[in-house]
Amino acid sequence: MSRFGDFPKQINVPIPTDETGMVGRECPNAECEGYFKLQPGTGLTGDDLDCVCPYCGHRGKPDQFWTKEQIEYAKSYTPNMPTLLRPVFDAVWNAAGWERSFNYDENGKWTRRD
Predict the structure, then answer these.
(1) Are strands 23-26 and 35-38 parallel, antiparallel or unpaired?
(2) 59-72 pLDDT, tens per residue?
(3) Where are the extended beta strands (E) located within the chain?
(4) How many Å apart are CA 62 and CA 27, to the nearest integer?
(5) pTM (2 d.p.)
(6) Which of 6, 61, 89, 107 could form a disulfide with 101 if both were Cys (CB 3.0 to 4.6 A apart)?
(7) Cross-strand partners of 26
(8) What does the CA dihedral 36, 54, 39, 35 come to, rounded to 10 degrees?
(9) Other CB atoms within 10 A of residue 27 CB
(10) How many CA within 13 A on the CB side of residue 107?
């Protein structure tokens, strides 16, 4: 079993909504690339739900309908690295016989040690 089992294998990037709570989408069909908006959290659940372009009818997984701007935003997104790396630091300290990394306080907040 890996000591890094809790380390995230992906980073979730929050995509902001507009002032009305809608999020933009772009058809991945190169012949269309139509822009439309959806309201997130409409209650639909499941792994096999397709997104459908209202202009050309193209169907695909929701993660194929990002706008070019959203993709660039995700590429430039910088997560909270101390929070992201805590499982790694804890694993290193565990391997040395310590309970946890003492670079974090009791609440999991990174504390600078000079």
Answers:
(1) antiparallel
(2) 999 889 999 999 99
(3) 23-26, 35-38, 51-52, 59-60
(4) 10
(5) 0.61
(6) 89
(7) 35
(8) -10
(9) 23
(10) 2
